[in-house]
């Protein structure tokens, strides 16, 4: 005999007691389905599922913003690391092309980018408050 992780009669009762309104049906189905999902010894209700979805969306939004910031920092660091080559080969500056020079320019470029990004955010924030 196969044992199910939920009570079949409860599932039948939930589906048979659905209300006739669209929102009521959706709520009853969500409560019925989430009530049948055992996780960690207890069952999630509709409120828990909604909270989990909202938290998940917030985490995705934060990750998207952080990933965009890392992408911008990598681009700024890469462009700054290439700058000694351009200055040396194209413009004739006497800059040694060593790993230390590339790292120094990259760190300096990332620092300038962060300062400008913070300044830009503050300037836009103040401009929006005065407008």
What's the story with the biggest beta sheet?
A: 2 strands, antiparallel
Gyration radius, rounded: 29 Å
**What is the overall shape?**
elongated
Percentage of residues in DSSP E strands: under 5%
SSE sequence, one letter per element: HHEEHH
Given helix and strand content, the structural type is: mainly alpha
- N-C termini distance: 71 Å
**Largest sheet strand order:** 1-2
Contiguous low-pLDDT stretches (5 residues minimum) are 18-22
Can you give the mean pLDDT? 77
Q: DSSP helix count?
A: 4
Number of strands: 2
Oligomer: single chain
Number of domains: 2
Helix content bin: over 70%
Question: Please, could you describe this protein's structure?
Answer:
- This protein has 131 residues and is mainly alpha-helical.
- It has 2 domains: 8-44, no CATH class; 50-130, no CATH class.
- It has helices spanning 8-16, 22-35, 46-89, 99-130, and strands at residues 38-39, 42-43.
- A two-stranded antiparallel ribbon has the order 1-2.
- A hairpin with a 2-residue loop joins strand 1 (38-39) and strand 2 (42-43).
- Helix 1 (8-16) packs antiparallel against helix 2 (22-35) and helix 3 (46-89) packs across helix 4.
- The relative contact order is 0.06.
């Amino acid at each position: 005999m196969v044992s199910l992780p939920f009570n079949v009669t409860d599932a039948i009762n939930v589906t048979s007691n659905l209300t006739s309104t669209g929102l009521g049906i959706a709520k009853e189905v969500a409560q019925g389905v989430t009530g049948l999902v055992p996780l960690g010894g207890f069952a999630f209700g509709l409120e828990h599922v909604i909270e989990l979805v909202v938290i998940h969306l917030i985490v995705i939004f934060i990750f998207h913003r952080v990933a965009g910031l890392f992408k911008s920092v990598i681009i700024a660091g890469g462009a700054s690391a290439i700058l000694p080559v351009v200055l040396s080969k194209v413009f004739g500056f006497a800059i040694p092309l060593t790993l230390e020079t590339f790292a120094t320019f990259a760190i300096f470029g990332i620092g300038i980018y962060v300062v400008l990004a913070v300044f830009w955010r503050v300037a836009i924030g103040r401009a929006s408050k005065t407008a």
